[in-house]
Amino acid sequence: EVALTGKAYHYETYFAPMDKYFSISVVKPGENQFATVTADITEHKKAEENLKKSQAYIKDIIDSMPSIIVGVDDDMNITQWNKKAIEYSGIDIEKAIGADLHDIDFFLKENIELIREGMDKKKIKNIVKKISEKKEGNLVFDITIYPLESNGNSGAVIRIDDITEQSRMQTIIMQTEKMMSVGGLAAGMAHEINNPLSGIIQSVQNSFRRIDPQKEKNIKISEEIGVDIEKVYEFLQKRNIIEFLNGIKDSGERAAEIVANMLEFSRGGSERLEPIDVNSIIEKSIDIASKDYDLKKKYDFKYIDIEKQFEDDLQKCMGNKQQFEQVIFNILKNSAHAMASSNTKEPLIKITTRKDDDNVLIMINDNGPGMDEETKNRVFDPFFTTKEVGEGTGLGLSVSYFIITDKHNGKIWLESNLGSGTTFFISLPFIKE
Ligand SMILES: Nc1ncnc2c1ncn2[C@@H]1O[C@H](COP(=O)(O)OP(=O)(O)OP(=O)(O)O)[C@@H](O)[C@H]1O
Ligand SMILES: [Mg+2]
Hints:
The chain is α+β, with helices and mostly antiparallel strands.
């Protein structure tokens, strides 16, 4: 055909008996002639094959990493986009490779300046970034930028690790350690205060009994010394002494209540536990909250929208009904208070329960003011409160903390962003079958 048409022809072929690759060119040197030039390209072919293999191998390595790996060149065009990057961004590789990072809908584009800086200064950069896009709480990422500079390649490789779980565990561990020491201290103090306090309360009660003009013994002794007990009582009343005694009694009882709460910290696990149904306890707590007189005075629960998303047929957990109700109530009360005092428009509390392996996960979310970092780190501390003196003791959440962790073997934690609300999470193990 080449001899006839004069059109040169080129092809490559593999010759099995020799296990060699050949490149063959056919030309027409003269009328009715053809010539072939055959070159052994086996070496070249093998090298090419090896290159392809090693490229595929590197891609496999990058894809099997648990991290998100993104490569960019000097102009921020994406050169590398591994499987995890696809998974987290939802953007497939064809769309990503070659695209400008600015145009890609992925949180990394908010860090372009940092990537630039790392590339320009040839320095490794690292940041931890929180993203609150999932409805089940914040995701935390650790982002490291490695500037590239090899064989004339410049740009950067960015490694992103999802450290949500670690950072949650870390705060839980820190919280546990802190609570052990602070809780122990508070419980010790409560114990010490308990005795003198009982002395005060008992003495007041005795005093009331011994000035009571109706009591026979009081009448008898007043007659013995020749005074009119009714007059004595009238004097005590006129001089407000009865009122003062009542003051001592009320304050003493209030202190005793606080002390009783503090003693919760140390009583670890002595309460009787029984199988409880989490959903119905939450229902009950909502009911209690909506009827609570103290709550109603300042912020009526009626104005708060309660949205429930309960998982049906949850297994039961071991728990103490009253205590568990108290925990949910404390959280609801805090939300109601926070939303009322910040004048939240369309206040909404969302309560969700769902199975999470061997645990039930309870999420209580409000769209209130949220908390700043300082508050977030201290909410579970005994006596930490941002409320006015006399309005809150700061014991609500610390008691709840001990009830959940110490007595129910569960976990409690929170996520909160200033301006966009707060979510409390409680995880409680199901009873093992
Ligand atoms: N849902 C929430 N939104 C905003 N801040 C909250 C929320 N829940 C708790 N807080 C903050 O945490 C602090 C501690 O709460 P905690 O329930 O332990 O104590 P308290 O409510 O101040 O007092 P007490 O519960 O003893 O009456 C509160 O003062 C408030 O600043
Ligand atoms: Mg409270």
